[in-house]
Amino acid sequence: MSQTEIAPEPFVGQFKGQRTHLFLLLGRGLLLLVPTIGIYRFWLLTQKRRFLWSRTFFGGEPLEYTGTAREILFGFLFALAVFVPVYGVFAYLTTQDELVAGIGSAVMGLFLLLLTGFASFRSRRFRLTRTLWRGIRFHQTGSAWKYAFMRFGWFILVTLTAGLAFPFMAAHLFRYRFNHTWYGTQRLKSVASWRHIAGPFYLFWVLFVVLAVAFLVVIGAAIAEPDAGAVLVSVATLLFFVFLGLAYSVIASRERSRFVSSISIGDTGVRLRLRARSLIGMYVLFAIVLTITAVVISLAMGAAAAGFFVSLQAELPNMSFETVMQALGPGALFLAIGAYLAFLAIFAILTDLFLALSYWKLVAANIELTNPSALDNVRAEGEEAPSFGEGLVDAFGGGAY
After folding, report:
1. CA 215/CA 240 separation, integer angstroms
2. Which DSSP string do the residues of 123-146 spell out, in sequence order?
3. Model pTM?
């Protein structure tokens, strides 16, 4: 580059969506889940993706999601054909003796673990081929079964090494996913390495072992001195979970920042700087909102129950438990079930608003494309992949963004 040339400005990510807009979308969608017996969730998932994609900008150009709810629904129905015989095997194992049932359940569990790797890779291919930027489609090559067996083997190795092999697994699987990712005619490349996260991971691994041993000592002391031990165990448990949250936030922020920053799209680089304190703040805010919501719901339900019993106050001393239950009637059962389902719906909304959306905004605001002009010559290529993998992931209960 000559002295008169100026390096092109990077494309910094922007997210222009509003939390209130997503709240209204989620609220309407969850109301429609009841009359449609849950089938509307495929449309709700599609609407959420379109909301996130269309409000995420790079260089003034938004992402575009072209997937449809029918594709996910048909993929889910096709995936059920896989799960029906699996459930049949589990049902058959319940009729066998304990040894056969135990071995059979373990084998089927490992098979499902293998299948989740296959499903996640196919699901990623589905989402990429329905994601466009500047009118050019992303797509993915590579073998889903190869990825599934690699992931399965790494999982076994990580288990056998008590987690010590995790940095190697994370880097290897990340490289495979992104080295088989394309933006039109331009292939992505990743040089992610286990060294990128080795420092904080192994530091927290050692601290975890030390704290786990200390926690066992505290439990032993609590058994010996029950009166004073209960408070000690409670404090130790709280501190242990705080440590786990801190460790996860630090390792996750380092992994995602370093791994994503290892990606290049031809001569265009990708940079992400995700701070641990941002993740911690996100989780703390979610915990606060969830706690306040739970308290409000509990107070409302307590007030309703108190009002009912006050109305029976004159007769209550002379009423048996059976009589009280008859007075409550079947409506109370439906009310309890409705309250439980309402809490699950509220929890789902809060998770989307204060975890999923917050994380998406964090990444969008801290990612940038360096030397973006190198992408000007990229041509459109690739086609939409089948939705079978997406259906499998949804059947596993993991319909991700």
Report:
1. 8
2. HHHHHHTTEEETTEEEEE-S-HHH
3. 0.87
